Description:
Layout: E1 2-10, H1 12-17, H2 19-30, E2 35-42, E3 49-56, H3 59-66, H4 69-78, E4 83-85
Antiparallel strand pairs: 1-3, 1-4, 2-3
Helix pairs in contact: 2-4
Amino acid sequence: MIIVMGKIRAAASDIESLYDAMATQMATTQAEDGCELYVFSRDVTDPNVILISERWRDGEALAAHSKAPHMATFNRAIGGIKIEEI
């Protein structure tokens, strides 16, 4: 099992503009073989932070995820905002 945790800090308005892209990313990723958990959540103490939680069966599943077409789509969406911290 591989666990990936991350955070993205951006302006609240930028985060809100990503909601549809994040929802699509979550749904398509959760359907991938080997994905055990994949969620975005908003930090309740700092609305400018999105938390990312992932759990993968193994490294092969995670590697396949990074090459999935929906990853490229999501990366383009997130590339359109000003990220203040990763």
